[in-house]
Design a protein that fits this description.
Oligomer: single chain
GO cellular component, one term: plasma membrane
Low-confidence stretches: none
Helix content: over 70%
Number of domains: 1
InterPro entries: Acid_resist_chaperone_HdeD, DUF308_memb
Protein name: Cobalt ABC transporter permease
Number of helices: 6
Radius of gyration: 24 Å
Keywords: Membrane, Transmembrane, Transmembrane helix
Strand order of the largest sheet: 1-2
Number of strands: 2
Structural class: mainly alpha
Pfam family, one: DUF308
Order of helices and strands: EHHHHHHE
Shape: extended
Mean pLDDT: 81
Amino acid sequence: MATESALPWPSIFAGIRGVLMLAGGIFALLSPQLALATLVWVGGVIVIIDGALGLWGLLFGGRTSSRLGVAITRHILAILAGILIVAFPAMAAAIGISTLVILVGIMMILIGAFALYVTIAGRALLRQGTFWPEVLSASAYLLFGVLLLVMPLSSALVLVSIVGVLMILYGLFQLYIAWQLRSIEVKVA
């Protein structure tokens, strides 16, 4: 049986993924505002492509629909929304990200409130020593939700920075995997 010393393509792909994740993570950490604007801009381009492909499919795909006018209007509106997002990414980011962060804040407050209620109402059923950790956990949800509601854009930038750190860690892990894949010996029959 012969052996080959390395699997080149999996290690190359893992290495490329690692480098891209590292670059994206460093970019998000060094400039979270620009990273957020870039993400919004890319989202706008994707919405334009989605609308254009949907319109193309409706007009040239050979299928007819009883709601063709509604579908065409939907795709035209998607294209227009994408153009507005690409043309005004800062405004789109402020409106879209703020709305999303506010919704997450409301969810965190609801989760915290329900967890606190269940913890207090079911105090007798909890094991010894688990009441206060549960109260602290519920309070952390409440505090996080309030912070998201009070400062949605600042919170979004902090979340971008957290994602940047996670991307860096994932990138380093991918580079480690790429290095490990290089040293695997493959048995060839």
